[in-house]
Write a structure and sequence with these properties.
The chain is an all-alpha fold and about 90 residues long. It has 5 helices and no strands. The protein has one domain (about 5-90). It is elongated and about 65 Å long. The two termini are about 40 Å apart.
Length: about 90
């Protein structure tokens, strides 16, 4: 099993936390903005928004984010292998 990087784990946990607390977040936004009942259509949409958490989708998103992170780190590492250490230090 591949360990999940801390940033990916934190983002996943925060996303699931927001999904679990969507009605509470809507009520908080309603209290902050002063919108009540039918007055704030955007806030009403947030409080009544259905949230469906699919473990397969979450696993796919985590997998893609890890793959993109590795790809973003691999290119600069590959480029640095093609530079002689003396040349890299000379331009610093």
């Amino acid at each position: 099993m591949v360990p999940v990087p801390p940033g990916t784990a934190t983002g996943t946990a925060l996303g699931l936390l927001v999904c679990a607390n969507m009605p509470s977040i809507g009520r908080l936004l309603s209290a902050i903005t002063g919108a009540t009942g039918g007055g704030g259509a955007e806030v009403d949409f947030i409080t009544s928004m259905p949230v469906r958490v699919d473990p397969v989708e979450i696993a796919m998103i985590v997998g893609v984010s890890i793959a993109l992170s590795l790809a973003a780190a691999a290119y600069p590492a590959w480029r640095s292998t093609r530079v002689e250490p003396v040349e890299g230090l000379r331009h610093e």
